[in-house]
Amino acid sequence: MQQHTEELSARTLPGAAVAVLEFAVVAGSAALFAIAGVATANSGRAGSAQVVAFVLAGLLLLKGIFLPLGFFVVQPNHAKVVVLFGRYRGTVRATGWHWTNPLTVGQRRLVSLRIRNFDSERLKVNDASGNPVEIAAVIVWRVVDTARAIFDVNDYEAFVKTQSETAIRHLATQYPYDSHDQAGMSLSGNIDEVSATLQQELEERLASAGVSIVETRLSHLSYAPEIASVMLRRQQASAIVAARQKMVEGAVGMVDMALKMIERDGIIELDDERKAAMISNLLVVLTGDQAVHPIVNTGTLHQ
User: What single DSSP character describes residue 93?
Assistant: First the structure.
């Protein structure tokens, strides 16, 4: 089982304080050089004291040249990962001017802690019903563990992209595009629940890279072009059936209400045959697609 690298806090010194020390070291080195030079000029030769002074001044000057290699700056929402001779020494998250071991120069890795978006490409995949669909999502993410992001994966940005597309493909195979029986979840009918499922899966996949998912949202969802027209007709047919059902329920209620009002107010006495004819005519009028052209009866009731 892979051991995860845990983020540590690197030890640093304030850059301004070390800069003052740097100035003092360079000034001291220059002063020693001057004093040793004057003493050598006055005596005509370099004695042991002058040699020691020259050596000490040279060491101070070398140190003064070496110290600046330890300076670095951390911008807001960024971090520096410090490595010394191949060993992870810690991460600096505090913004500002810092100084650390100069031997780490060239081994400090900059990591952005900003929130970033990954907008996936439109992926073609079969849904739970076997229908080809096109799906895409927007993944909002950020780095929360710099050590894992740098040391536990080869390229954490590429890792986020690959794992996100894999999770989106897996998500599409778990649900049908549309749930016609209204009993189960579907990609188009349960956007919030599907997005939450995608976010949970991505959290598990990207934890090893020190990445946290802020938000996920489907940005595109449609049937593949080769079946889009067929599925559109199916949706239209379902909508027509549902509309017809509502129309029939309403028409039956109106017919029942009309018969009860006629009987209650004693407008006319209708036998079963006339009631059946009236019900048939009313249902045709109320549920028909075309405008009705009535035939006016100018004779008696039974003609």
Answer: -
Q: Do 138 and 105 belong together in one domain? A: no
Q: Is the pTM of this model over 0.85?
A: no
Are 186 and 239 in the same domain? no
Record the tokens describing residue 294, joined without a space: 């009535």
* 162 and 65 within one domain: no
Q: Let me know: does 132 contact 227? Beta carbons within 8 Å.
A: yes
- Residue 124 sits in which domain range? 117-223
Per-residue pLDDT tens, the chain, 303 aa: give them. 457 788 999 999 998 888 787 777 666 666 655 665 555 555 555 555 555 555 565 555 556 667 788 899 999 999 999 999 889 999 999 999 999 988 888 889 999 999 999 999 999 998 888 888 899 999 999 999 999 999 999 999 999 999 999 999 999 999 988 775 556 788 888 889 999 999 999 999 999 999 999 999 999 988 887 765 655 666 665 666 666 777 777 777 777 787 777 777 766 666 677 777 777 766 666 666 656 566 655 555 554
251 lies in some domain: yes
Please provide residue 223's backbone torsions phi and psi, each rounded to the nearest 5 degrees.
-70, 150
Query: Of the residues 70, 86, 112, which one is the last residue of a structural domain?
Result: 112
